[in-house]
Amino acid sequence: MNSNGCVMAVGGAEDKIDRRTLLSKFVELAGGSDASIVILPSASTIPLERGELYAAIFRELGAREVTILQLETRQQAGAARNARVVDEASGVFVTGGVQLRLISLLGGTSIADSIQRLVQRGGVYCGTSAGAAAVSSHMIVTGRAGMKVRRSMVDLAPGLGLVPQAIIDQHFSQRGRLGRLIAAVGANPQFLGIGIDEDTAALFHRDQSMEILGAGQVVVLDASRVRTTDLHAVARTKPFAMSPLQLHLLTEGSIFDLVSRKLRSRRKRQKSSQIA
């Protein structure tokens, strides 16, 4: 393995046909031609079809071994034999679907523990859409679009905890989810809010940095410096005040420091200037 243990959160709707940039990067991180990948399609309402789609792609991209682990019950997710499948892999891929379905099946099970071990021993976790949201310790399971920001816009539940310092949202710009992410960090200012566009990924490294890949944008919300808020004093369905809220807009090549909560560097792209 050459990833040194990393987590890749994809905002959904990643390119599966043409360049397949993000999926190729996952296979590379998982070991390339030596990659042993396990696909978990549990979030999907059509898990077998979704699993087979990604399995075909990963084989075409050169992975040595690809296994679809279709889990339909918590009993299956808690079975030691299924955890061993992940323990023997170099990468695990979690598909999109329904966030609550995913975490209600996997949360607190042997499979969840094996995913933690995978990253700790140098493997790579990649989740798209619901699979991306699940990497947070507090994950968004349901929410509503719009910019009249209220606490009732978002519901959280415990996630896999692979990226404990953040709350992650996906399909971000495409589905107008800025308001609900503001509501999430407003109620939980200790966490960064990270909103990831489609065909875009946030790659979390062990050195506490986040690298942006792909075609779109990643929004980072930092509520740790908020000095004025009445969120606690108004009804859940009423808009609340909060100031100041810091917002970062990141694109491919940006390296963001999760500890200092600042842009660490930006790799130079063609026809763009480098930002230090």
CATH architecture: 3-Layer(aba) Sandwich
Q: Which whole number gives the mean pLDDT?
A: 95
Look at the helices and sheets and give the structural class: alpha/beta
Instruction: Compute the number of helices.
Output: 8
Give a count of the beta strands, DSSP E runs of length 2 or more. Answer: 17
Strand order of the largest sheet: 3-2-4-5-1-10-11-16-17
Quote the beta fraction. Answer: 25-35%
Rg over CA atoms, rounded to whole Å, is 18 Å
Overall 3D form: globular
First CA to last CA: what distance? 31 Å
Q: Report the biggest beta sheet as strand number plus sense, adding barrel if it closes.
A: 9 strands, mixed
Helix-strand topology string: EHEHEHHEHHEHEEEHEEEEEEEEE
CATH-assigned fold name: Rossmann fold
Estimate nothing, just give the exact number of structural domains: 1
Instruction: Using the coordinates above, name the CATH class.
Output: Alpha Beta
Fraction of residues in helix:
10-25%
Task: Tell me the name of the CATH homologous superfamily.
Answer: Class I glutamine amidotransferase (GATase) domain
Query: Which stretches are poorly predicted, pLDDT < 50 over at least 5 residues?
Result: 272-276
What kind of oligomer do you see?
Answer: single chain
Structural commentary:
Helix content is 25%, strand content 29%. By secondary structure, it is of the alpha/beta class. It has one domain: Class I glutamine amidotransferase (GATase) domain (Rossmann fold, 3-Layer(aba) Sandwich), CATH 3.40.50. The strands form 4 sheets. A 9-stranded mixed beta sheet has the order 3-2-4-5-1-10-11-16-17. Strand 8, helix 8 and strand 9 form a beta-alpha-beta unit. Helix 4 runs parallel beside helix 6. The C terminus is likely disordered.
